[in-house]
Amino acid sequence: MKSMFRLAVAAVAALSIAAPAGALAAAAPSGPPVEISAILSTTGVASFIGTAEAKALEVMQAQVNAGGGIHGRPLHFNILDDTSNPQVTVQLVSQLIAQKVPLFVGPMTPPACLAAAGLIAQTGPVSICLNPFGHPPPGSYQFNPFADSYEVATAAVRYFREHNLTRVAMINATDGTGRDSDLAFNYAFKLPENRSMSLVAQEHYAAGDVSVSAQIAHIKAANPQAIISYNTGTPFGTVLRGLHDAGMDLPVVTTGGNMTLGQMKSYADFLPTDMLFGGQISFAPGDIAPGPIHDNQLALLASLTHAGLKFDGGYAIVWDPALLAVEVMRHLGADATPAAARAYLANIHGWTGTDGVYDFAGYPQRGIGANTVLIMRWNPTTQRFDPASRRGGAKR
Q: Under DSSP, is residue 147 helix (H, G, I), strand (E, B) or coil?
């Protein structure tokens, strides 16, 4: 299938450089907009990444419309804020069901995606979740177009092993993200190749806790060489502050959902020297070998630069999922049914995005797998995120 990024490259070029008269062939879209709703957490504990994702959708909307829109009609992303609260997510999904929309982008957090899954299980609409957690069954109305959380955990443990960091402690919240992270990392530590690795401490805390000093004291007593903490937003900041206050400057790996410039700026006073993220290859645009994926990543980077935005993970996370939603609407039209949207997505093969060539037959509900995982590192000197590993967490 033709990648939407060809449209992106053309639109960015047309908008950012002087072009001869008549170079823009696409007519301005008109008529009622084709609306795609996106449930994001633009307020609350996950707002660091939610606001970045909302900005990325603004950029995408502008460039799709600069290229003629969807069948001559303007695209409009309808941003719905669930306030980082799964109960609000349920209300918003119920509204979309009543409106009989074919699909929506989001929600963002694992608890929210889990809450949405029950509502859409029988008749849809399609939910394109924005995280690798959760494990929607093949044929369901929920899609998570990322490598599975177990594959992300395996890459992070591999990274530690290949850097001789064999004694690792883990501290996760008791919410849905934390529970899935516990399962994923415990799975990774039990793999045969990781028999030299030891999970020396495993602590938990409530996402609303303002202190984790007792849990950090237990971890410190276990003498780890590295820390795993897979919680998004404010709860993760609580862990970092606790480690800093305890004098524990160890490598810390967290979810790519924390890979935002806003968080790094907010947490600057208590970040560890080695701040790592379990991310995806689109988090390092242009780092892979030349080819269609490389070109699409650079097109994303050019789009953000043209919009005056400095790259961060929030923009990359939402980009492919939102473009997949646009692809469905382009193919099926604004009157698509949830069943048709599900069938179309489930049969996408060879669609190239920023994170790989998607094959939903080979990777049901996801489209991509372990070879798209990349461990990233925050560089406080350059104020940017750099690749710390090769694909799958292998040492560079």
A: coil
